[in-house]
Design goal:
GO terms for molecular function: transmembrane transporter activity. This protein has 325 residues and is mainly alpha-helical. The chain has a single domain, classed as Orthogonal Bundle (ABC transporter involved in vitamin B12 uptake, BtuC), CATH 1.10.3470. It contains 15 helices and 4 strands. α4 runs parallel beside α9.
Amino acid sequence: MTTLTQKNTVPASDSGGKKWLSFLADYSTIIFFVLMLAVAGILSDKFFTIANITNVLRQSAPLGIIALGMLFVILTGGIDLSVGSMMALVSVVVALLMPNFGLLLSLFAGVSIATIIGSISGGLVSYFRIAPFIATLAMMTIARGIAQIVTKGQPVFIDHAGFKSFGEGYFLGLPLPVYVFIAFAILAHIIYKKTTFGRLVISIGSNETATRFAGIRVERYKFAVYALSGLACGIGGIIATSRTGVGSPVMSESFELDAIAAVVVGGASLAGGRGNVFNTVIGVLILGVISNLMNLMKISGNYQQVVKGLIIILAVLLESLKSKK
């Protein structure tokens, strides 16, 4: 009996250490974000100006919307590499249609095309059992190729004051695109937390076989998350285009990597089943702060890519810590 009691006794110091590690693992995304803000404020006296903060939020809005769509795909254990190409295709479709068909119809067409492409990826993954990496890589190439073909590789300038004013406009001190980001985040949170769909998406990522044995038609839900990702790309592509006023076939190259990075930095597991909307939003803001800080410090884009890669590695290591806990 004495031996058994000694065996089960945990030293107070070890217990405290485990609690501290548990705290770090649970709140690592928020802690890292706060540290990044502190570092940014120290390194640049321009960072905490109102103009710069609103600029960070405006630039983060398209990535935030795309990352939230990507989150649901990753929760199922999938991945979507076509998001950047879909945004480019949306931008050129909107730019080409707007002169003849007007603002609303061109915007509807852009969102619809992105949703259709996402649905095709979802169909290939769920019903034809093609690996998500391969299916979305194919759609990435196809969408970018179509964008290049219809524009002959040239940018298409948009001459619509109302459309461009949305990307540059403000309401109550916040850029208009930020309100779209906030609305999409609220909607994503409701779907994630309050609906059967959200719970089943997590269940599929956690244990697809068990979910299937429970009588759930897994294919429908996997199809739906890729369609949702396409919808997010349509909205994000329109916002990005409204900021530049140009439909470009080379828009958002490598954007899929930023979206995946934001979700991973937010603590989601690439194996599926773990992640949440709030942390994904924080992950987006972390990447936005890092990019903005390096721009303020006049650090080239090549170095920025290296830093983002290191951040992804750090995020994966922290995710491993959570899994061990």
